[in-house]
Each structure stands twice: as C-alpha cells, then as structure tokens.
Amino acid sequence: MTGPIHLRPYQKAAVQAVVSRYQTRHVRSMLLHLPTGAGKTVIAAEVIRVLSKTADFGKVLFIAHRSEILDQTAATIRRHMPSVRVDIEQGSRTACQDATVTIASVQSLVRRRDRYDPKAYSLIIADECHRALAPTWEEVIQYFHANKAGASLLLGMTATPRRTDGRSVSSVFEVVAFEITRTELEDLGYLVPMAYYAVRTELSLDRIKLTHGDFQIGALSAVMDLPEVRSLTLAAWMEKAKDKKTIAFCAGVDHARHLASDFNAIGVPARQIDGKTKDRGQVIDAFRRGEIQVLTNYGVLTEGFDDPTVQCVLMARPTTSPLVYAQCVGRGLRTAPGKTDCTVIDIVDRNTHQLQYSAAEMAGLPPRWRCRGGDPFRQARALAGIKVTSPEAFLAIRRAESLEEVQSILMSLPPEVVVAGLDDKPVLHYEPCEQGCSADQAERNARRLLKQAQAPVRRLTVTDDAVQIEFRTPAVDNERFAYLQWHLARVTARRVAFTIPKNTSTPKNPRALLKSMLPESCKLMSLEVSQDGATLVATIAGLTREESDRIQQESRVEHGARLEIRGQLSLFGD
Asked: Which residues, including other chains, have CB under 8 Å from residue 219's CB and lie 6 or more apart?
C-alpha cells in the first residue's frame, strides 16, 4: 500500500494529546494505552512527523524487541514520511548515523548503544513498553533518556500496562497521555466483536508449578499435548470455526508441531512456527495469502503480527497472564472486508484454576461465566446497566453464570423491583425459543418483542435461518440495539441482522465517535441525531473555540454529518 496514511479521529486526538503536553506543558515521559488493533504505529509515525517540524528537534529512536515489529514500523514510517531516512539496527543490519529515524531491537541496542550519541535524539519511542521494567530496557532508557536530564521525550505504547508480576509500567511515565478501550474501538467500527467459547476439560492445572508468574512451560506443554486434549481442541475448532482462518497459540514447540500435524491429517492446511523456524517469514506470507488455513505457533505471534483477515483465535495454551492473553486474542480483532466477528475458542480447566486467565476475566466477569458465543465485553457492559432494589435479587444476579440466567432472573422479578434491565434498558418479557420455530412463529415473536422495545421498524423479513430488520431511523447505535439483537435471536432461534436507511452517512455509533475526538478535559453531556440523520446536535462542556472548530470539521470529514455543538466554551484557551 502506498500514499499518505489517513488517521482516524481518536488517532488524531492521541497525537494532539502527546504534542500539546510536550510543547506547552513540557511533559517529558508519556504513556499511550491503546488496545491491540488501535494503530499504535500509525500514531507514532504522526507524532514523529508533527514534532520533527519543531525547531532544533533532533533524531528519533524507535525501540522494539521483535524483527516483525521493526520491519512493519519501518514500512509504516517510510510510507507516512517518504522523504525521511529510516534505518534498522538489528542483528546483521546496522543503521546509518545520519538516519533521521532509527528503529532498533532492544537486544542489539543494549550491546551497541555506545555507537550512538544520546544527545542527538529528541524522541525515544518504546513499543510494547510493558517490557520497560526489564533490565535491558532499563539500560537503554537510562542511556538515551534519563542521561539527558529530561531534554528528550520518552513515549511508551502498550495495550497492557500491567505485567504478570503485578508491576505497572505506569511507574516509568509521568502521565497517561491518551487511552481508549477495546469496546470503544468496537463501537467505532475499528475492531470486531468476539464470539467467545470456553471449552472445559480436565487439565489438572493445579498440579503445574508457576515460573515467572505463569504456568511452567514444559509441564503445561506435556498436559496440552496429550492426544485426548489435542483431540478435544480439534473437535471444538471443527464445531465452531472449521471454515475460518485461524491462529492457534500453543503451550510449547512440540505441542504446536503435533497440533499442526493433527490439522493436516484431517485435510486442513496447517503449518507450525516457533522462534527457531528458519523460513518463518515465508510461512507467514503463505498464511496471509490464504494458502495455509491454520497457523500454530509457540512464542512468536503474540506481539507485532498483523493480519486483519484472521477469523479465529484458538487458545490452546492456558495462561495466568492478562498480558499474554490480551495480546493473543488481539491478533484476531482487527476488521477486514466481510468480517463480522472473531471466534475465540479457549481450552480451560473444568475446575477453573484460580489463576487461569480468560476472556471473561479480561472483561471483568466471574471466572465461571459462560459467554456462549457472545462478546464478554459487551455482556459485562450490559450487566453494569442493571439496577434492582432487592438485595436478594442483586445477589442472585451476582451468582449467575450466563446472560441467559440473568435475563431469566430479571423476567421473574416484580416490575417494581427492577429499575433497569440489561444495558440500562427496560426488561423485555418473552419465552425463549429453545427448540426452534417456524418462520411464521418467529415473525410473530419478533414483532411482539420489537413492540415492547418501541423500536422504529420499517421492514422485517424472516427466512428459515435469518431475521433481517430495517429501521426507520439511522440512530441505531450499539448501546441501544446490541441486546435487542440478542433478545431477538433468543425468541426467533435465528441469526438477526439490522440495517438502516441507505441514504444516510451517519456513523454506526455517533456517540462513541464523538467521544473519541474530545480532549480529556471535556464532557459529552448529550447527543441527538436529526430524523434524516444529516445533523448531530451535541452538548459538550469545556471545549475551547479552536477545539470546537476542529471537531466540527472532523465530523464532516469522517462521516459527512453536520455537527452542531452547544454548551459552555472553556474560559481557557483560544
């Protein structure tokens, strides 16, 4: 891909947050907390471009730890700034001293740092900076940043600031300059939701010792590589993802190799890679081209790998590490044409080892929670909206282990007890269609539920396997309609899809889009969408005149809708 990179609104906001703190507040170490798929490298490239225009601004050092990250970063910066010299310092590759941007592996840099004059570098970017507490990273940061008495800017980027050992990389940085959550990116349409399935089996993880805060690799691999466990893993994949392009994260090199052989034995093209695979680049390229359907790996694709067409993440390796888990799952959440979600299959201990981490815990749900193919983050947000006045009802909901169980509890309660149901919406009452139903019955059930929800429906079409609903208004945002879709699927036993009028360019979730463009000091009080979807009316507190003008312009550029901003302007700023 060639040509300039188009930044998303939240990416522009992140760049502005870094630049303004550096130039006006003289902050010299900042953290960007962005989930996998947010485009950290694009943000870094734009920060480099903007700050390089500053008078007397020196060179840039970008530090990473894996060759794939180095090469991808170099390609992104070269595309974004074609006139700038970008060199790589790693292994047999040596960067030229005249390079404006040096992209270096921390392993090579710690041995060769004496070749570089730290005073020549004005910006040091640490990718995956949760590693900054490791001795090699500390040495490099001390040499290039701390020795300059704060003259340079240290910018850290990570999806997971808290490490397995409980230490937080936030202690290295003065401020968190910008952060955005995975659910917010999903609302904006920049990440796809998870379809999460936990496969419970007898793993006896309590017998496995921990090393450096995670399961001991040799012992874990011996358990996960048992034929019966691999067979269960294969069966789960065949049931939920047999036609999907898949990355499998394994517990060891032998486990990855044997699992790839199992896939090939049933006719699924698969390959295995690890840190010693000599043709790793060629194998990954073949996977990207679709010649390989399943790529099993150990310790390679956790960070820095980017293939948006991945449709399934197979977690064939239990872990106690939130960091490792989030990075693995994040490999499949990027958007691609025709991709609606990412199937995540998790092989977990039936006894729920107290330290084993899962997507449910990542979303703040109880360890034994059953998502049943739903997105745990959306389910957690829906649960957070429930308000009941009875302590007994509250405790019953807290003890529930699935969304279906929570909905059944809510429907059984007296109306005066329930202030708000799932997602802070009124409780809908219905009988789930457990055994399937005819198209006529499904249509009646759907219309009854839509009437309860007071949804502005224009057209409803029911087939043998799907329900298609077109709404009269373009204001079909995730907050209001995500669980209406879930309820409809329960009463029709069919896949449910929503459409909006085609003559509007209003974003899928205008509230989330607008929030992503706001400075941290501002608050979105309310947002209304005109009937034709052409105008957004927002009440925002704390904007300066300059910020108001910028946001209105970006709103027009991003989705074509006119943004009218109301509210008190800040007394500070232009």
From this structure: 207, 208, 209
Task: Please tell me which residue, 573 or 143, carries the higher pLDDT value.
Answer: 143
Q: Where in the chain is the domain with CATH 3.40.50.300?
A: 9-180, 187-377
Q: d(Cα 434, Cα 440) in Å, to the nearest integer?
A: 16
Domain with CATH 3.30.300.20 in the chain: 510-566
Say how many C-beta atoms besides its own lie within 10 A of residue 468's C-beta: 15
Q: What is the pTM of this model?
A: 0.73
Find residue 496's DSSP bridge partners: 467
CATH code, 9-180: 3.40.50.300
| Residue 231, both tokens | 């067979």
Higher-pLDDT residue of 544 and 311 is 311
Say which range, 107-116, 141-150, 377-386, 484-493, has the weakest mean pLDDT.
141-150
Give the contacts of 412 (CB within 8 A, at least 6 positions apart).
none
Which pLDDT score is estimated for 524? 82
* φ, ψ of residue 228 in degrees (nearest 5): -70, -35
The per-residue pLDDT of the chain, averaged, comes to 84
Q: Is 307 helix (H, G, I), strand (E, B) or coil?
A: coil
Domain 510-566 indexed as CATH 3.20.20.140:
no
Kindly state the average pLDDT of the residues 408-426: 91
Which of 185-194, 284-293, 327-336, 492-501 is modeled with the greatest confidence? 284-293
* CA–CA separation, 449 and 457 (whole Å): 11
- Alpha carbon dihedral 231, 235, 238, 239, in 10-degree steps, equals -170
Q: How many CB atoms lie within 10 A of CB 401?
A: 14
Distance CA 203, CA 126 (A): 37
Lowest-confidence segment of 134-138, 374-378, 473-477 by average pLDDT: 473-477
Inter-helix orientation angle 227-241/217-224, to 10° = 70
- Give me the CATH code for the 187-377 domain, please: 3.40.50.300
How many other C-beta atoms are found inside a 10 Å radius of the C-beta of residue 260?
A: 23
